[in-house]
Structures are given as C-alpha cells and as structure tokens.
Amino acid sequence: MKNIISKLRAVPLKRKLQAAAAAVVTIAFTAVFQSYAWFSEQKKAAEMFKVKHPDLLYLNAAHGEDQIYFNLGNIDIYLQDENGNFVDASGNRLADGVPPVRATNRYVFSVSGSNTTAFTLQLAYTTNNDLEYRVYNAAELDTEPSGDHVDYVLHEDDPSTASVNEASVETHRYYTKGSQVSFNKMNPDSTNSHLALADSSNRYYSANYGSGSLVHENAVPMYEQGSVSTNTTDEFCKYFILEVERAEGNSNYQLDKETDIVYISVEKNNT
C-alpha cells in the first residue's frame, strides 16, 4: 500500500490533472448515455400505446340535452283544427264521410359518446293504439330551413332566472330528416294478432310471461333493432327523428286513445 502511495506521489501534477479530467468525462458520458436510453424507451412506449378515448355512450334529447326533455306525452292520431274537426294537410275542413288524414308526430333524440364505431338502437313498444314507429337520421341546423323540419326549443336557458325587465329569448335548433334507419323486427307479427311473442318456439315470451294465457295481446311489446355506424373512434353526436303515425289501413276512426309504452335504448356493438 505504501508503495502505491509513493508511486502516486511521484506522478507529475500535469499527469494527475489529465487522469482526473478523463474520469469526469467517463462518468458524464455514462450518465448521458443512460438518460438518453431511458427517454428513447419512453418515446417508443408512447408510440406503441396511444391514448384512446374512453368507451362512452349516451342517449339524450335533441341537442344532447337531458333525457327528461324527450317527451312523447301528446301524440295526435289525425289532423284536426282547434274545434276538433277533421282537416286536410292544408288545414281545410273535410267533408262528412271523408276519411281523416293521419297525423305525423316527430320527436328528436340524440346518441353521443366516444370510442364507438357502431351501436345498436333498440325500440320496444306496446300496441294498444296500433301506431307505427320509424327512426330517421337527422341533421341539426342553427337557422330555420325553408323545407320540412322539426323545430326544437332549447331548455338550457331557464326563463325563471330572467330579471323583471329582461325579455326571455328562446333559442331554437332545427332538424331535417335524412335516410331511414333500417330496423329488424325481433318478434314480427307474422300472424297479425300482435302476439307473435307467444309462438311456441319463441324463448322471449316464455321467459317474460310463462304460459301467458291471461296476458293481454296489446300489452306484449314488439321489439326492433337497428345498427348505426359512427365511422370514428373520436367523440361524436348523432341525431335522429322518431316518427309516430297511426298504422296505415286502420279503418277505426275513433279518437279515444289508450296508454302505450315506448322504450328507446342504445347498446355499443362488439367489435
């Protein structure tokens, strides 16, 4: 050990400084190399694992408003004036004996979400009033178009919050009808009895009603499903118009209406 110390003392000062500088450079190079390797690996990991939007799917009223504003509480069966007289599409009173004109009721709803390339719209309804239901793709507009459209008043501005001297201003959105969404009838009324679910080979009926001998035929809901593509994994919002009319060919012109239940639901398609 003494020999080593004596040899180190014998080394000239210039040689000692050169050796110290070489050691510092070696340590610095090692640290930089390790840091660069760490950043390189993190960059590769970021390229391999891109951040995706979360799997979200919402069913709302027009303009993405809350579901409570999607209201089917007032469905007209035939066109009538304020006095209850049957009228044509132009509002002219019909002569006695002329069949009434079916009223077309339209309601807007929306489906929004992210990371969903396709979803299934599901429609279920009872048949007390013999109504027909159709769903169309829709486009939202800020200005009122000249053609046929649905006028929707937004609920985001609460008139009750306006001051006494401040006029409440309604904000409108307008929706035009596009192509019809193709639905598959899951329990078609093949026997024209509204009770197709009661077919002996249909598992849905027995799962819900058992033998079902006392179930009223119009209380058994009909089920339909239609697939819709979004063509994106980003955030989206698609608008639809639900169209409701009295079944074509129905010759019962009474205006008394029973209660029907209509369900709309949405489910993400497995991809």
The helix count comes to 3
- Uncertain spans: 159-167
Biggest sheet, open or closed, and with what strands and sense? 6 strands, antiparallel
Which percent band covers the strand fraction?
Answer: 25-35%
Task: Give helix and strand order, one letter per element, not per position.
Answer: HHEEEEEEEHEEE
Ends apart, CA distance between termini: 74 Å
Strand order of the largest sheet: 1-2-9-4-6-5
Please give the number of β-strands.
10
Gyration radius (Cα, Å) is: 35 Å
User: How many individual domains?
Assistant: 2
Descriptive key words:
six-stranded antiparallel beta sheet, alpha+beta, 271 residues
Characterise the protein shown here.
This protein has two domains: 2-48; 56-268, no CATH class. The protein has three helices and ten strands; from the N terminus they run H-H-E-E-E-E-E-E-E-H-E-E-E. The chain has helices spanning 2-10, 13-48, 203-209, and strands at 56-61, 105-114, 118-125, 131-141, 150-153, 172-180, 184-185, 222-229, 236-246, 262-268. A six-stranded antiparallel β-sheet has the order 1-2-9-4-6-5, with no helix packed on it. The radius of gyration is 35 Å and the shape is flat.
